[in-house]
Specification:
Layout: H1 3-9, E1 16-17, H2 24-36, E2 47-53, H3 54-71, H4 75-90, E3 94-101, H5 102-111, H6 119-140, E4 144-145, H7 155-162, E5 168-179
Antiparallel strand pairs: 1-5, 2-3, 3-5, 4-5
Helix pairs in contact: 2-6, 3-4
């Protein structure tokens, strides 16, 4: 399958199920392979990934719901939020948690002061590339996913629940599973508003 085809196949899937053909170990290896080959500034390899399945996956989304309930403005809005969490995320087979290992970034700032102001931004770029690489790799395997950001609301509880090092900063949550309904149509803004080809200077 061509990369262009895989890019088009990768979509935000909000109707997930547990009917995947792969084992947790096989999915774990997909995630590992994608992150291992992801480029990072100075080859810092600052991205960390944890794959949750089974009861651990369910527990994550219970944590999310508990934290959201505490900040919800009304019972009606929380009911809608609960439906969304349960149907779009918890219903899936698992979740990938993506982190930045902050001492790695700090070490680069100290060791390369000329570029110190850039390393945080570059670590975010590395995280984003890893997120996308995992997403495309899962799509190739026929697994649906989406990227969510309930951090930093859930950071402390997630750290305590799963015994995660305090120096790992949670940056994204990726629920995944079988595709129970396809993504909707994707709209594109006009190319001329986004892209330019420049072949000479003034």
């Amino acid at each position: 399958m061509s990369f262009d085809t895989l890019q088009k196949q990768r979509r935000s899937i909000y109707s997930l199920g547990k009917n995947v053909s792969q084992t947790p170990e096989e999915i774990f290896n997909i995630v590992k392979g994608a992150v291992r080959e992801t480029p990072t500034a100075f080859n810092s390899q600052s991205v960390r990934a944890i794959v949750l399945t089974g009861a651990a996956h369910d527990r994550l989304w219970d944590i999310v719901l508990a934290k959201l309930k505490a900040v919800s403005k009304s019972a009606e809005s929380f009911e809608k939020t609960t439906d969304k969490i349960n149907q779009s995320f918890k219903a899936g087979f698992g979740t990938v948690l993506l982190f930045t290992d902050t001492p790695v970034v700090k070490g680069l700032e100290e060791n390369f002061p000329l570029y110190a102001d850039n390393f945080y931004d570059w670590s975010e770029q590395g995280l984003g590339i890893a997120d996308y690489a995992i997403w495309v790799a899962l799509a190739e395997a026929g697994i649906g996913a989406s990227t969510q950001h309930y951090n930093p609301l859930i950071d402390e509880d997630v750290q305590n629940e799963f015994n995660i090092p305090s120096t790992w900063r949670l940056r994204a949550e990726m629920p995944f599973g079988s595709i129970e309904a396809p993504a909707g149509q994707k709209d594109y803004m006009p190319d001329e508003d986004r892209f330019q080809l420049i072949t000479s200077t003034k």
